[in-house]
Each structure stands twice: as structure tokens, then as C-alpha cells.
């Protein structure tokens, strides 16, 4: 069986990233709404206080939070490197979005944008930023050869 064509592979990857972001958003939003509804009588600050108390109430939850924080840091470094490589703007929003939304949502959206840039560089898909202008993004940033003589 032959591997899929690059444009088909790009389309499949973008679809997978979009589905991961949507599923992650739905699951995390449902859990957040459920928590807020169950703790609504505590008021806005009480909901936050209860969440932090419940989230860090034992060593198991501390372990999960430490693992999540370290994963967030590693993915943040990856996103910064890839954002520079593929000229993805506002990478800080994806990194800050992790604790604000959910890591699964912000990272999946970043990967979707990254794959769109890769596809645009290959000429197999639209570039979300430059699609209307016709500007293509190079696959790699050319190294400086020094002054031309």
C-alpha cells in the first residue's frame, strides 16, 4: 500500500488536530461547567478557591499537576521553535491558552496552524494568514550567504 500523497496527508493531519481540539474543548468545557455549577453557591472566588483546594488536595493530584506543568513547558519550547521556523505569529497566545483553556486545545490548535503552514509551503493547502494575498511561506528560512559580489 502506497503512502498518501502530501496534500492528502496534510488534510488528514489537519482534520485530526481539529478533532482533537474540538473534543478536548468539549470535554474540558463540560467538566468546567459541571464544577462551577456544583460550587456556584460559593461565589466566583469560592469556586476558584474550591478548585485549587480540590486540585491540589493530595500527592496524586500534585503528581498530575507537576507532570502537566513540565509537559506544558516542553511543549511551549517546541511551539516557540516551530513558530519561528514556520513564521507563526502570536505563539504566546497558544502557550498562555494552555492553562486558560486546556493544553489539549491550545496545542492541537497550534499543530493545526503549523500543519497549514507546512501544507502552504508545499503548495498543497491554504495558508491561513496569507491565503488571500497569494504570499507563500518558504519551507525553510534560507541561510545568509553573506554579501553578494
Count of alpha/pi helices: 5
Please outline the major beta sheet: none
Structural class based on helices, strands and sheet pairing = mainly alpha
CA radius of gyration is 20 Å
Give the helix proportion (percent range): 55-70%
Strand elements, count: 0
Runs with pLDDT <50, length 5+? 130-149
Compute the separation of the termini in Å: 50 Å
The coarse overall form would be: elongated
Percent of sequence in beta strands: under 5%
Rounded mean pLDDT score: 86
H/E series, N to C?
HHHHH
Can you describe what's shown?
This protein is mostly helical and 149 residues long. Helices cover 70% and strands 0% of the residues. The chain contains five helices and no strands. The protein has helices at residues 6-38, 43-55, 59-86, 91-100, 103-122. α1 (6-38) runs antiparallel to α5, α3 (59-86) packs antiparallel against α4 and α3 packs parallel to α5 (103-122). Residues 130-149 have low confidence and may be disordered.
Secondary structure blueprint with pairings:
Blueprint: H1 6-38, H2 43-55, H3 59-86, H4 91-100, H5 103-122
Helix pairs in contact: 1-5, 3-4, 3-5, 4-5
Name the features.
5 helices; 149 residues; disordered C terminus; mainly alpha; 70% helix
What is the compact description of this entry?
This protein is mainly alpha-helical and 149 residues long. It has helices at residues 6-38, 43-55, 59-86, 91-100, 103-122. Residues 130-149 have low confidence and may be disordered.
Amino acid at each position: 500500500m502506497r503512502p498518501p500523497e502530501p496534500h492528502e496527508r496534510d488534510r488528514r493531519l489537519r482534520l485530526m488536530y481539529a478533532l482533537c481540539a474540538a473534543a478536548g474543548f468539549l470535554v474540558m468545557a463540560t467538566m468546567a461547567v459541571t464544577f462551577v455549577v456544583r460550587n456556584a453557591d460559593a461565589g466566583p472566588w469560592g469556586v476558584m478557591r474550591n478548585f485549587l483546594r480540590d486540585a491540589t488536595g493530595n500527592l496524586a493530584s500534585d503528581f498530575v499537576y507537576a507532570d502537566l506543568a513540565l509537559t506544558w513547558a516542553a511543549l511551549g519550547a517546541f511551539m516557540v521553535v516551530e513558530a519561528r521556523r514556520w513564521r507563526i505569529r502570536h505563539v504566546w497566545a497558544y502557550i498562555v491558552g494552555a492553562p486558560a483553556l486546556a493544553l489539549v486545545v491550545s496545542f492541537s490548535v497550534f499543530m493545526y496552524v503549523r500543519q497549514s503552514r507546512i501544507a502552504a509551503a508545499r503548495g498543497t493547502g491554504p495558508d491561513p494568514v496569507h491565503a488571500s494575498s497569494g504570499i507563500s511561506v518558504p519551507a525553510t528560512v534560507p541561510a545568509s550567504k553573506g554579501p553578494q559580489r
